[in-house]
Write a structure and sequence with these properties.
Rossmann fold; 11-stranded mixed sheet; DHBP synthase; 373 residues; globular; alpha/beta; 11 helices; 18 strands
């Protein structure tokens, strides 16, 4: 299935979106087209959640496997009953506290939502975004909108309209451009069909915030390969390799001094082997790599993890554009949104994590070549 169109960028003011522009995009959704819209997390690739043909277009243009479910976006609480069966325990408290916002809930799917949305499972992932443009667009469309991130499958998620163009130009009708996404990482996903509820994907709503409402919630992110996921994962973003730049990415774990020393020695080894190297670093450590022939991108201070998360995907894309072969990054604190940052780095690295507390040398495979790190 192909979908080739002339993509149009529609500029919108984040706080006061033009009603005529919003109406144009909403009409395209109702007609079965594809519209990219900004949310507070990342840009989403939207289609009418009731339209199975339009849903299949999403998978086609993203090159996304059918086993990876989509999130259905709502404009109001009243729509929740249209797409999901009865609310399980804790649902109302979570919705009242965190909607609109970066929290997705796994609920029982009503038959009116095509099975293609949910990888054929009887569940549905739903959320209500808080971005003013997203809400205006969803209200005007009048239908639930299924939307994964608006990027090619496994690429870093898009946090600007430019990122979307890089991946999907010519394959979506409209891009509503409202500037950079404020959070820069996807929503948290909570499965409410288990008791106690399970945090399947950490994201824009922290585990600490969730436990303030549901103290019993557990955190069990899945790291599946594509073959395992064919059985059907109830949440998007559960693959081990996901959100990945073209360059091989390695994450270094341990105390700051050991991480810094190991990253420097690894960069030197890779440079000597003829590889170009990019560094994703906290602002505190960025200067520590200036004497090396590497490309350094600062993610921001370790004291401001929200800013680090906001910059993460954009920085990966910037290093890809710089043409580096390998990206090295140190771990960050897992407090608050730091848990989501770590999750994205594990997936972006496809699980290539160098534990610096281990004094023995480790070998990582990069493009079928082994480099001693």
């Amino acid at each position: 299935m192909e979908y080739n169109v002339k993509t149009q960028i529609l500029k919108v003011d984040q706080e006061h979106p033009d009603d005529a522009v919003i109406a144009l995009a909403a009409r395209k959704i109702v007609e079965g087209g594809l519209v990219v819209f900004p949310t507070e997390t990342v840009y989403g690739l939207g289609a009418n959640a009731y339209d199975e043909d339009a849903i299949r277009l999403i998978f086609a243009v993203k090159h996304r496997p059918a086993s990876d479910p989509l999130i259905v976006h709502l404009s109001s609480m009243s729509q929740l009953g249209d797409v999901a069966e009865e609310l399980p325990p804790h649902a109302r408290n979570l919705v009242e506290r965190f909607w609109p916002g970066p929290l997705t809930l796994i609920l029982r799917r009503k038959p009116v939502i095509p099975g293609a949305v949910s990888a054929g499972l009887p569940t549905v992932a739903v959320r209500m975004p808080r971005h003013p443009v997203a809400l205006a667009f969803l209200r005007k469309a009048g239908v639930p909108v299924a939307a994964p991130s608006a990027n090619l499958f496994m690429h870093p998620s898009p946090t600007t309209a430019g990122h979307v163009l890089d991946d999907l130009d010519g394959h979506v009708d409209f891009i509503l451009d409202a500037g950079p996404s404020p959070i820069g990482m996807e929503s948290s996903v909570v499965d409410l069909l288990h008791d106690p509820p399970i945090l399947l994907r950490p994201g824009g709503t922290s585990l600490e915030e969730l436990r303030a409402i549901v103290p019993t919630i557990t955190s069990e992110p899945g790291y599946f390969d594509l073959q395992t996921a064919v059985a059907g994962a109830s949440s998007p973003g559960m693959l081990l390799r996901h959100y990945s730049p073209r360059a091989a990415l390695l994450m270094f774990a341990g105390t700051p001094d050991k991480v810094l020393a190991r990253m420097r020695s690894s960069a030197t080894t890779l440079l000597e082997a003829g590889r170009s190297v990019g560094i994703l670093s906290s602002g505190e450590f960025a200067q520590q790599f200036q004497d090396l022939d590497v490309v350094v991108n600062s993610l921001g201070s370790m004291q401001d993890l929200h800013n680090v998360g906001r910059n993460l995907f954009a920085s990966m894309r910037d290093l890809d554009k710089a043409g580096v072969d390998v990206i090295l990054v140190g771990e960050f604190s897992t407090k608050g949104i730091g848990l989501a940052i770590r999750d994205r780095l594990i997936r972006a690295s496809a699980g290539r994590v160098v534990e610096t507390s281990n004094d023995c040398l480790q070998t990582c495979t990069i493009d079928s070549q082994s480099f001693l790190l």
